[in-house]
Amino acid sequence: MNGPDEELAREAKRGSQVAFASLVRRNQSLVRGFLRKMTADSATADDLAQETFVMAWRKINSYEEKGSFRGWLCRIAYTQFLQQRRSSQSALRRDTAAFAEMDQTVSEGSAMEAKMDVERAMKVLTPEQKAAVSLCYGEGMSHSEAAEVLGLPLGTVKSHVLRGRERMLAVLREKEAS
Length: 178
Known about the structure:
Layout: H1 4-13, H2 17-38, H3 42-58, H4 69-107, H5 111-123, H6 127-138, H7 143-150, H8 154-177
């Protein structure tokens, strides 16, 4: 195929950031619209669209012009969606298990003791872990929303939440054992 996108893609493959920026402008509605149909959350779709264009820039040299550039871009978007879905499902299973464990520990004491236990457990966290755990568990934000609030990459926030939760559970288990 030899349309305007394909010509811009050739220029982008030669390193033209201007050409790639044109490709983004020309195709962002397509990618966002596609991802919004795939996800229930427009903010998640917008995050995935951004990740799609970052990945497309990284992989622009793999575009072989066997099909349309738009099709190639939508394949990347769909791959980003699938990866995010797998990651979310995995995180949901981990979070559900962690909450069940925390709930069991909390239900064994009074509400006041539980609050004190959680406050004590929060004190062992680094400031970054405390912020991520507070936003995700305390405020009910998604990892993406917390990443935006904290100005950190999504993977970093996920790591802070995971490590923070593990440290808190360890403190709660120690209290339970004593």
